[in-house]
Specification:
Strand order of the largest sheet: 1-7-8-6
Radius of gyration: 25 Å
Number of helices: 26
Number of strands: 11
CATH topology of the largest domain: Collagenase (Catalytic Domain)
CATH class of the largest domain: Alpha Beta
Bound molecules: zinc ion
């Protein structure tokens, strides 16, 4: 998946189901809004707008809103919507699990059974360990590299990306083709830095991770002493994989992760791996068209497999079986996993209650089956039309911006315009729903359901290779509170989840909606033209359509943004990585500018109250981003997330904009007025 999202995916995983209107339900309503659509009661009048606008707009919310004990972060926009939807989903799933028919949805039995099996704690306690032992037995039977390859394929299909990953993607150079993609993977910690950097925090996490691996192996039946040795083996192997892995910053450059050397090239790069056997075991023996994203990783992996004793390789696979299955295993496994991944990595205080985890599990495995139950009754043509007309006005703002852009020459402008005119929009939910007919779901085993659902999804993903591109597909479930731009498809996607208050509120003033969801639309549109997206053309092909002089102009402007964000401290003394977050920061800056231009063009009559429409626009923007995070989670995100923290997503772009300064009468020298303002689009 190479999509550019609005917000980090990991923050909202498993709690991202929603509908667009809630008046038909009895669950908690959104917080009360002033007539304008902004919440005046959370504005911190003591902090001037020109000093720290984020604090000004969100201050009292930040002061009075605690982060729930089972959440790594809490936001006024994303989290509140997601929480409301989680309750809605629960209601639906409890009813379907009890056999009640809710609509004409063909998969309600499946979602009901999946939920019921997940909620059956006694059943999981009774059978889980024995079922895990069956999986581990296969690993223990491996005698040589051939057998190892077969087991890797099985794990890839149903559990975990042990050693590496295999999936499908549009060919960067020919977006009409779907090819296979082999990529680096196989780490239990979030990124290579966690193994390689020698800061106190990383060392502490490595020690905790090794203890966690040991504890899990003990739960899986190993003696403590053997498990301790095995945990060290896992660390050694994963460290070697980390050393061979490409950094997240380098991975942002599409040219660095595109090597269409096909199966023959993979065989040459890593002859130690029995590739034919691997593909045959996966069930895709005929696949030959493959992007080997990071060839250096695979040549190092081949050598690593060859020189490592087979017993150690089995140990690594055992760990990844236990780790991959953990969520569907008995309580002791779940608690131990929470202790490391929840408490230590994200700073959580409490585990989510079981029903929340089960709602998340259904959404993960049967996202479009459960999603269609909601949207069929809640997101009609009206919502789609209103959203589309807003998108059109943002696109028109981009069009007119292009004509006035001083640093771009005419030929490049023409190509940029062509790309703009080709962008497709998807709104609300897919026109064609996913088919789950052949996915078998039982009420008796959560682990088996989980394994089958993963196999089903792997098959679906790999079956796309060599087939005509399906333009109707969505990469987020419709209730997700997020949005994305896909450079290969050249499309923007706005799931129903984000099209509701405070992002979009039918009764709010236009200025506030432009600041909210309008900025989201401008953000996704700008992704098509950020440092990464601009490398793809109107048809979604990786192709340099920029004249050299204009390239240079763009790079200078991007460098300004890198420098600006490098200067911000995210947590402790850790600065934001200007390079890792460049694409998102360009999208934020362009997004708010385009949305502002569209709002000005809409020319609404003056509001009656205390604020001007200009002020409401910026307050509407800032208030969708009010967010608190735990320090541990902030550390995880600053290392791995391409998005900047909310505070800088507001203050960063706005301090570059003279329009913002004018709206609040900010003067040169004020903190919200940067001397060397950056401007890209
Ligand atoms: Zn984004």
């Amino acid at each position: 998946m190479r999509i550019r999202t609005l917000a980090p995916m990991l923050a909202f995983i498993a709690c991202h189901a929603t509908v667009t209107e809630t008046k038909k339900t009895s669950v908690a309503a959104p917080p009360p809004l002033e007539e304008t659509g902004i919440d005046v009661s959370i504005i911190d009048e003591k902090t001037p707008a020109c000093e720290d606008f984020y604090r000004h707009a969100c201050g009292l919310w930040l002061d009075k809103t605690p982060i729930p004990a089972d959440k790594p972060a809490w936001s006024r926009g994303f989290s509140v919507i997601a929480d409301r939807n989680e309750l809605l989903l629960k209601d639906i799933l409890e009813k379907t699990a009890a056999g009640k028919s809710l609509s004409s949805d063909p998969y309600q039995d499946k979602i009901g059974s999946y939920y019921a099996a997940c909620m059956d704690e006694a059943g999981v306690e009774a059978h889980g360990a024995a079922e895990l032992a069956m999986e581990l037995k296969r690993v223990d039977a491996i005698k040589a590299l051939d057998g190892l390859t077969v087991e890797i394929a099985r794990e890839h299909k149903s559990l975990d990306n042990a050693f590496f990953s295999f999936g499908s993607q549009q060919d960067f150079k020919d977006a009409t083709q779907v090819i296979g993609v082999l990529d680096q993977a196989g780490l239990g910690l979030p990124d290579r830095d966690y193994y390689l950097k020698d800061t106190a925090k990383y060392k502490e996490l490595r020690t905790a991770y090794e203890a966690h691996v040991k504890n899990m192996l003990v739960l899986a039946g190993e003696k403590p002493e053997a498990a301790a040795t095995h945990a060290k083996t896992v660390m050694t192997l994963e460290r070697a994989l980390a050393e061979a892995s490409m950094s997240l910053v380098d991975r942002r450059d599409p040219k660095k992760v595109y090597h269409r050397i096909d199966l023959a090239g993979a065989q040459k790069t890593a002859p130690e791996i029995a590739w034919k056997k691997y593909l045959t075991e996966l069930g895709f023996a005929k696949v030959t068209a493959i992007n080997v994203a990071v060839p250096d990783f695979f040549s190092a992996l081949g050598k690593l497999l060859k020189k490592t004793p087979i017993a150690d390789l089995r140990t690594y696979l055992r760990w990844h079986v236990v780790h991959g299955a953990a969520g569907a295993l008995p309580k002791a496994f779940v608690d131990e996993t929470f202790d490391f991944y929840g408490k230590k990595l994200k700073g959580l205080l409490e585990q989510r209650p079981r029903w929340k985890r089960c709602v998340g599990a259904v959404d993960h495995s049967l996202g479009e089956a459960v999603g269609r139950v909601f949207v069929s009754t809640t997101f009609g043509a009206e919502g789609k039309n209103q959203t589309l007309s807003m998108i059109r006005s943002i696109e028109a703002a981009m069009r007119s911006n292009l004509t006035t852009l001083g640093w771009m020459d005419e030929p490049t402008k023409k190509m940029a315009n062509e790309k703009l005119e080709s962008i497709a929009n998807k709104i609300g939910y897919p026109d064609k729903w996913r088919n789950y007919d052949t996915l078998e779901v039982s009420r008796t085993s959560y682990l088996q359901n989980f394994l089958r659902a993963n196999r089903f999804e792997t098959d679906r993903e790999l079956a796309k290779i060599g087939q005509p591109l399906d333009r109707t597909e969505w990469q987020m479930s419709p209730p997700t509170v997020n949005a994305y731009y896909d450079p290969s498809m050249n499309e923007m996607v706005f799931p129903a989840g984000i099209l509701q208050p405070p992002f979009y509120n039918r009764t709010a003033r236009g200025s506030v909606n432009f600041g909210g969801v309008g900025m989201v639309m401008g953000h996704e549109l700008t992704h098509g033209f950020d440092d990464e997206g601009r490398q793809f053309d109107a048809k979604g092909n990786l192709h340099d359509w920029w004249s050299p002089a204009v390239n240079k102009e763009f790079d200078q402007r991007a460098a300004c943004v890198v420098q600006q964000f490098d200067g911000y401290v995210a947590v402790d003394d850790q600065h934001i990585s200007g390079k890792l977050t460049l694409g998102e920061n360009i999208a934020d800056l362009g997004g708010i500018k385009l949305s502002h231009a569209a709002f000005v063009a809409a020319a609404a009559p003056k509001p009656q109250g205390h604020f001007t429409d200009e002020q409401l626009f910026y307050l509407g923007y800032a208030q969708t981003w009010c967010m608190s995070r735990r320090d541990e989670y902030a550390r995880l995100l600053v290392a791995t997330d391409p998005h900047s923290p909310a505070k800088f997503r507001v203050n960063g772009p706005l301090s570059n904009l003279p329009e913002f300064a004018a709206a609040f009468s900010c003067k040169p020298g004020d903190k919200m007025v940067r001397k060397d303002a950056c401007t890209v689009w």
